[in-house]
Design brief:
The chain has about 350 residues and is α/β, with parallel strands linked by helices. The protein is about 35% helix and about 15% strand. The protein folds into two domains: about 150 residues, Rossmann fold, CATH 3.40.50.720; about 180 residues, Rossmann fold (3-Layer(aba) Sandwich), CATH 3.40.50.720. The structure holds (2R)-2,3-dihydroxypropanoic acid (DGY). (2R)-2,3-dihydroxypropanoic acid (DGY) binds next to loops.
């Protein structure tokens, strides 16, 4: 039975994963809610079925919102993604249909930057390899040349993409005594002056100069395989590549070959071309790679903030109020023209 509030049917919402209870509680009496309780993402058929009768979806980065889903979701008004990235959503298709899309920027910036730094340090100082060494019972002596790594201080970090997270990584690197160069869609003279960053005119220049390279670009057609065989060959032989952005930004096969053949020194990956990374992925056979399962924003506080923001976006969109973070505000114009058309074609409308 459809639930109502003040005689008006509550909007139907599908939440595609268990989220922080305080965020879920915000939906009480505001929507008729169904939550997918599975650990893995909802099966595609179930997502399509839920979307078919939903006014709002609260999605994760694993849930594909595409033409197929949108075509079968006539009531859908809001898709609220619990992530800053939204490459899992065909935003232009949402806009065409007057579906608002929300994301969760800002609340995960420092957390993701900290984790990028954790990976950078783990790779530079071979922390994961050293842990394995001890667990395998191989710590028999102290040796002057045991598990030698690389210093961060005095080294050059290349930041690809100076958005919010890239900037926070750069600031941390400066505090560690690193020289920081960056390349980005736009030059940022204020950040150069304020944080002592150096602009690299293009990706090649950055790759040739950096001891460590960290990626902070969104996934779009222009950034797909942005780091491929050719770019890896531009990097220094000891250089370490860190990816906390999106897996397909790096050609993973080319990365494997570069690491195997000593073209670069190491890599630390929070993301993969195919997630979850299969256990037989060749990269996992190499000692100079650290791989973790897409957890850069995974702290209790940050995931709670992301969930709360995703619910705020969802509720605002459903109420027709401005969403705190909407990635396609132009969808409002489509909504207005669809409403006008509906009024004109409604039974009894003035001819
Ligand atoms: C994001 O938000 O896009 C991250 O990849 C997951 O937190």
């Amino acid at each position: 039975m459809t639930r109502e509030k003040n005689g008006v049917a509550l909007p139907r919402v599908f939440v595609a994963r268990r989220i922080a209870p305080e965020a879920l509680a915000m939906l009480d009496n505001q929507a008729e809610v169904e939550v997918w309780e599975g650990e893995a993402q909802p099966p595609r058929a179930l997502l399509l079925k839920q979307a078919a009768c939903a006014d709002g979806l609260l999605t994760m980065l694993t849930d594909q919102v595409d033409t197929e889903l949108l075509s079968g979701a006539p009531r859908l008004r809001v898709v609220s993604n619990m992530a800053v990235g939204y490459d899992n959503i065909q935003v232009s298709e949402c806009t065409l249909r007057g579906v608002l899309v929300g994301n969760t920027p800002g609340v995960l910036t420092a957390t993701s930057a900290e984790f990028t730094f954790a990976l950078l340090m783990a790779a530079a100082r071979r922390v994961v390899e050293a842990d394995r060494f001890v667990r395998e019972g191989r710590w028999r002596h102290w040796q002057p040349d045991l598990l030698l790594g690389r210093d961060l201080h005095g080294a050059t970090l290349g930041v690809v993409g100076l958005g919010a997270i890239g900037r926070e990584v750069a600031v941390r690197a400066r505090a560690f005594g690193m020289r920081v160069i960056y390349c980005s869609a736009h030059r940022h003279p204020d950040d150069e002056a304020r944080h002592g960053l150096t602009w690299a005119p293009d990706l090649g220049a950055l790759l040739r100069e950096s001891d460590f390279v960290t990626l902070h670009v969104p996934l779009k057609p222009a950034t797909h395989h942005m780091i491929g065989r050719e770019q890896l060959r531009m990097m220094r032989r000891h250089a370490v590549l860190v990816n906390t952005a999106r897996g397909p930004v790096v050609d993973q096969r080319a990365l494997y070959e570069a690491l195997r053949d000593g073209v670069i020194g190491g890599a630390a990956l929070d993301v993969a071309e195919v997630e979850p990374m299969p256990p037989d992925e060749p990269l996992l056979s190499l000692p100079n790679v650290v791989v973790v399962p897409h957890i850069a924003s995974a702290t209790v506080a940050t995931r709670t903030r992301m969930a709360v923001m995703a619910v705020q976006n969802l509720l605002a969109g459903l109420r027709g109020e401005p969403m705190p973070h909407c990635v396609n505000p132009e969808a409002h114009n489509v909504i207005l023209s669809l409403q006008a058309k509906n009024r004109r074609t409604a039974p009894g409308a003035a001819p």
